[in-house]
Amino acid sequence: MAALRSTGLPIRSFDVFTEGYTHRRGPGGYCRFPIGEITEALSGGSTADLNRLATTFQPCKKLCLSLAHHVIKSSFHQPRHIVFPHSDETARDHTRSLCDLLNLCPTLEELHLVWEYDSVNEQTTGVLEELYFFSRVAESCQFPRLEKCTLHNLRMTEATLLTFFRQLNGW
Hints:
It is a single chain. By secondary structure, the protein is of the alpha/beta class. The protein has helices at residues 2-7, 35-43, 47-57, 88-103, 125-131, 133-140, 158-166; strands at 13-16, 25-26, 29-30, 33-34, 62-68, 70-72, 81-83, 110-115, 148-152. The chain contains seven helices and nine strands, in the order H-E-E-E-E-H-H-E-E-E-H-E-H-H-E-H.
């Protein structure tokens, strides 16, 4: 994301680990993009950097993201370590940043979102905010040209799904 922000090269299709929208197991676990990385990418630059990022994603027609909590793999012999949001506000920042990224794509025709789950024993409000990120997407993102959408392994309520569908092309 930082490289994209600094170049301003136009992106027509952006696929991060969804590989055909099915779960692909890589070394050390499933491939996924930590949702907190989006916040770091969007908040780490100047106004000029963010303008370049907006220019980069403006022509994007297809966006595919496999998301998860932040996972750190310590070593081959040690189990991976999952980092949950430190606070409810941090989790809200993560979900808002995802929406900011999606809103940078006004010409989006295809959206594919996947959530990769890990065993979560700790159900804090911050963890739930990230797990139910699609609620914020349905409320704050507009996709006037969306023709194809895949939502895989996402947690949401029926009301959230109806809200999302209603804002699509005046459904």
